[in-house]
Amino acid sequence: MLEKILNAINHYRVLLKYKIIYKEKLNVGRGIRFRGNSRFSISTNAEVMIGNNVFINDGCSINSRKSVVIGNDTIIGEGVKIYDHNHRFNKQMKKSQQGFSVAPVKIGSNCWIGSNVVILKGVHIGNNTVIGAGVVLDKSVGSNKIVTANRKIKIDKINYKINYKE
Predict the structure, then answer these.
(1) Are the C-beta atoms of residues 90 and 161 closer than 8 Å to each other?
(2) Among 27, 50, 81, 163, which one is least packed by beta carbons within 10 Å?
(3) Helix, strand, coil shares, percent, the chain, to 5
(4) Overall average pLDDT of the 140-154 stretch
(5) Residues near 123 by Cβ (< 8 Å), separated by ≥ 6?
(6) pLDDT tens digits, residue range 73-131?
(7) Pairing between strand 67-70 and 75-76?
(8) Residues with catalytic annotation?
(9) CA-CA distance, 30 to 96, in Å (whole number)?
(10) Distance between the two ends of the chain, CA-based, in angstroms?
């Protein structure tokens, strides 16, 4: 019983903290549940919208410079990272000074995002889809799909562009 009470207190502590910090930029539905150590980073002109009955496990990170939307009844496993942006890079400038490219992320309803998944900018995940543990997802996936990782490692040389344009 004490464990349930402590979990409830932690859940509301996390939610209240981020609602105070981000106000209207963070919209959450009814019945959302968090475990500890999850974090949000929402830029000035960005938003995060989380539907009803969503569960977010330990150590998750949701980072928005534009828009991240999570549908109703979705389960997010431990260590999931969601980014709606990526650093730009070009050999001629310091990487830290090149800004970001952005595109919204949308996760449908009734999805299961497995542990340690990374979801990158521009990805849309359809309803009722399962993303297996450890997947780095940089392409959109339709509804009623299962995505698993190939587990092959590929190493390539960076081919820098002289005049970078988005």
Answers:
(1) yes
(2) 163
(3) 15, 30, 55
(4) 89
(5) 105, 106, 137, 138, 139, 140, 141
(6) 999 999 999 999 998 777 677 777 778 889 999 999 999 999 999 999 999 999 999 99
(7) unpaired
(8) 87
(9) 39
(10) 54
